[in-house]
Amino acid sequence: MRVFAVVIGFVMAFSGAVARADGEKAGDFDYYVMALSWSSNWCALEGDARGEDQCLPGKGLTFTLHGLWPQYENGWPAYCRTTARDPSRGESGAMADIMGGAGLAWYQWKKHGRCAGLSAQDYFATARKAFGSIKEPEVFAKVSKALEVPAAVVEEAFLAANPGLAKDMITVTCSAGMIQEVRLCLTKDLQPRRCGDDVIRDCRMTDAVLGAVR
Question: 4, 16, 37, 74: which could form a disulfide with 66 (CB 3.0–4.6 Å)?
């Protein structure tokens, strides 16, 4: 209750890790990192300049799925070798409701999804299942004006809403003084697990901007 009181009060009133050489074998990884982006901040940093539909007024998007990333205990694979066919436009477009747009879905498949050792259809289904496995704290939908909040408060809100999570299973990142992402570590079976040391480092900002829901 204390956590939600802190969050509601605000509402109402990374790391040095690098990817290994690209082109690893698909399916060779240890766990997933699921990245959830605060939509309004992503729009401010990138989406507005691109004219993305996700950023139009009235969309009401809060945290969207940036990606589900195969991860090593240290580092991550990218652009892996796979015999799986690429997704169709329709398959990519079907992910727009949780990812904000078809373009992001395609890019995430190309860079990360191919590394999962799954077909594009199964990878998108797994990403959707992972997204649905985490409860977003309801308070974030009430952010009607830009706030300055400690990144730790965002993390604590997710921990309170998801009793199965522990502090070493989640991290919050910042970019350009803004809350960027909530990243959660999951087993291949999509169960919460401890993050690797290169993922677990939190943003320590005490006044990170959380943009208003558009």
Answer: 37
